[in-house]
Protein backbone atom coordinates (compact mmCIF):
# COMPACT_ATOMS: atom_id res chain seq x y z
CA UNK A 1 0.00 0.00 0.00
CA UNK A 2 2.82 2.36 0.87
CA UNK A 3 4.36 1.67 -2.55
CA UNK A 4 1.07 2.59 -4.31
CA UNK A 5 0.74 5.76 -2.27
CA UNK A 6 4.30 6.80 -3.16
CA UNK A 7 3.70 6.09 -6.86
CA UNK A 8 0.50 8.13 -6.76
CA UNK A 9 2.25 11.05 -5.04
CA UNK A 10 5.16 10.85 -7.47
CA UNK A 11 2.77 10.85 -10.43
CA UNK A 12 0.90 13.86 -9.07
CA UNK A 13 4.19 15.67 -8.47
CA UNK A 14 5.43 14.96 -12.00
CA UNK A 15 2.15 16.03 -13.60
CA UNK A 16 1.99 19.25 -11.58
CA UNK A 17 5.65 19.92 -12.42
CA UNK A 18 4.98 19.50 -16.14
CA UNK A 19 1.98 21.79 -15.94
CA UNK A 20 4.01 24.40 -14.06
CA UNK A 21 6.80 24.19 -16.65
CA UNK A 22 4.31 24.76 -19.47
CA UNK A 23 3.02 27.90 -17.74
CA UNK A 24 6.50 29.41 -17.43
CA UNK A 25 7.32 31.84 -20.23
CA UNK A 26 10.29 30.88 -22.35
CA UNK A 27 13.20 33.24 -22.83
CA UNK A 28 12.15 33.74 -26.45
CA UNK A 29 8.55 34.61 -25.51
CA UNK A 30 9.86 37.05 -22.89
CA UNK A 31 12.15 38.62 -25.50
CA UNK A 32 9.25 38.93 -27.93
CA UNK A 33 7.07 40.63 -25.31
CA UNK A 34 9.83 43.08 -24.40
CA UNK A 35 10.61 43.78 -28.06
CA UNK A 36 6.94 44.41 -28.85
CA UNK A 37 6.73 46.78 -25.87
CA UNK A 38 9.70 48.80 -27.19
CA UNK A 39 8.21 49.03 -30.68
CA UNK A 40 4.78 49.94 -29.25
CA UNK A 41 6.34 52.66 -27.10
CA UNK A 42 8.22 54.13 -30.05
CA UNK A 43 5.11 54.05 -32.26
CA UNK A 44 3.18 55.83 -29.50
CA UNK A 45 5.93 58.45 -29.22
CA UNK A 46 5.78 59.00 -33.00
CA UNK A 47 1.97 59.23 -32.85
CA UNK A 48 2.11 61.86 -30.10
CA UNK A 49 4.93 63.80 -31.78
CA UNK A 50 7.39 63.16 -28.93
CA UNK A 51 10.61 63.07 -30.96
CA UNK A 52 12.88 62.83 -27.91
CA UNK A 53 11.05 59.80 -26.55
CA UNK A 54 10.94 58.08 -29.96
CA UNK A 55 14.67 58.73 -30.30
CA UNK A 56 15.34 57.15 -26.91
CA UNK A 57 14.32 53.72 -28.25
CA UNK A 58 17.04 53.77 -30.93
CA UNK A 59 20.37 52.04 -30.39
CA UNK A 60 23.49 54.11 -29.72
CA UNK A 61 24.57 53.32 -33.31
CA UNK A 62 21.40 54.88 -34.75
CA UNK A 63 21.80 57.83 -32.38
CA UNK A 64 25.34 58.38 -33.72
CA UNK A 65 23.96 58.41 -37.28
CA UNK A 66 21.26 60.92 -36.32
CA UNK A 67 22.88 63.05 -33.60
CA UNK A 68 19.67 64.54 -32.23
CA UNK A 69 15.96 63.80 -32.04
CA UNK A 70 15.02 66.48 -34.60
CA UNK A 71 17.24 64.98 -37.28
CA UNK A 72 15.96 61.51 -36.35
CA UNK A 73 12.33 62.63 -36.64
CA UNK A 74 13.01 64.29 -40.01
CA UNK A 75 14.42 60.99 -41.30
CA UNK A 76 11.28 59.17 -40.10
CA UNK A 77 9.00 61.73 -41.76
CA UNK A 78 10.91 61.46 -45.05
CA UNK A 79 11.25 57.70 -45.36
CA UNK A 80 9.14 55.98 -42.72
CA UNK A 81 5.95 58.00 -42.60
CA UNK A 82 3.77 54.94 -41.96
CA UNK A 83 5.38 54.72 -38.51
CA UNK A 84 4.01 58.10 -37.49
CA UNK A 85 0.31 57.22 -37.50
CA UNK A 86 -0.44 53.64 -38.47
CA UNK A 87 -4.12 52.75 -38.38
CA UNK A 88 -3.33 49.10 -37.79
CA UNK A 89 -0.34 47.33 -36.25
CA UNK A 90 -0.06 43.54 -36.34
CA UNK A 91 2.90 41.77 -34.79
CA UNK A 92 4.07 38.72 -36.65
CA UNK A 93 7.04 36.44 -36.06
CA UNK A 94 10.22 37.19 -34.20
CA UNK A 95 13.03 35.74 -36.27
CA UNK A 96 16.73 35.38 -35.88
CA UNK A 97 18.79 36.27 -38.93
CA UNK A 98 22.55 35.75 -38.67
CA UNK A 99 22.38 36.18 -34.91
CA UNK A 100 20.20 39.32 -35.06
CA UNK A 101 16.62 39.37 -33.77
CA UNK A 102 14.20 40.71 -36.37
CA UNK A 103 10.61 41.48 -35.39
CA UNK A 104 8.15 41.45 -38.29
CA UNK A 105 5.32 43.96 -38.01
CA UNK A 106 2.55 44.60 -40.52
CA UNK A 107 1.41 48.24 -40.57
CA UNK A 108 -1.42 49.95 -42.40
CA UNK A 109 -1.27 53.67 -43.11
CA UNK A 110 -4.12 56.20 -43.21
CA UNK A 111 -4.60 55.55 -46.96
CA UNK A 112 -5.19 51.84 -46.36
CA UNK A 113 -1.81 50.84 -47.79
CA UNK A 114 -0.19 47.93 -45.98
CA UNK A 115 3.52 47.67 -45.25
CA UNK A 116 5.77 44.99 -43.82
CA UNK A 117 8.30 46.34 -41.33
CA UNK A 118 11.42 44.43 -40.34
CA UNK A 119 12.67 45.79 -37.01
CA UNK A 120 16.28 44.91 -36.22
CA UNK A 121 16.46 44.65 -32.46
CA UNK A 122 19.58 44.82 -30.33
CA UNK A 123 19.81 43.88 -26.69
CA UNK A 124 21.96 46.31 -24.75
CA UNK A 125 24.42 45.36 -22.00
CA UNK A 126 21.78 46.51 -19.51
CA UNK A 127 19.41 43.86 -20.90
CA UNK A 128 16.99 46.34 -22.46
CA UNK A 129 16.03 46.06 -26.11
CA UNK A 130 16.46 48.92 -28.57
CA UNK A 131 15.72 49.39 -32.23
CA UNK A 132 18.83 49.12 -34.40
CA UNK A 133 17.11 49.68 -37.71
CA UNK A 134 13.87 49.27 -39.57
CA UNK A 135 13.29 48.30 -43.17
CA UNK A 136 9.83 48.85 -44.62
CA UNK A 137 8.32 47.31 -47.75
CA UNK A 138 4.94 48.03 -49.23
CA UNK A 139 2.91 44.84 -49.58
CA UNK A 140 1.57 44.26 -53.08
CA UNK A 141 -2.20 44.16 -52.48
CA UNK A 142 -2.78 42.51 -55.86
CA UNK A 143 -1.02 39.30 -54.77
CA UNK A 144 -3.37 38.66 -51.87
Report on this model:
- By secondary structure, the protein is an alpha+beta fold.
- It has one domain (about 30-144): Nuclear Transport Factor 2, Chain: A.
- It is about 45% helix and about 25% strand.
- The protein has helices spanning about 1-25, 25-50, 50-55, 60-65, 70-80; strands spanning about 90-95, 100-110, 115-125, 130-140.
- Strand 3 (about 115-125) and strand 4 (about 130-140) form a beta hairpin.
- The radius of gyration is 21 Å and the shape is globular.
- The chain starts with a helix and ends in a 6-residue tail after the last strand.
- Mean pLDDT is about 85; it is low at about 5-20.
Task: Quickly give the CATH architecture.
Answer: Roll
* Count, helices: 5
The largest sheet, given as strand count, sense and whether it forms a barrel, is: 4 strands, antiparallel
Spatially, the strands of the biggest sheet line up as 1-2-3-4
How many strand units?
A: 4
Q: pLDDT below 50 for ≥5 consecutive residues: which ranges?
A: 4-21
CATH top level is Alpha Beta
Sheet/helix structural class: alpha+beta
How much of the polypeptide forms β-strand, as a percent range? 25-35%
* CA radius of gyration: 21 Å
Element order, helices and strands? HHHHHEEEE
The overall pLDDT average reads 86
The N- and C-terminal alpha carbons lie at a distance of: 65 Å
CATH fold group: Nuclear Transport Factor 2, Chain: A
Q: How would the global form be characterised?
A: globular
Count of all domains: 1
Helix content: 40-55%
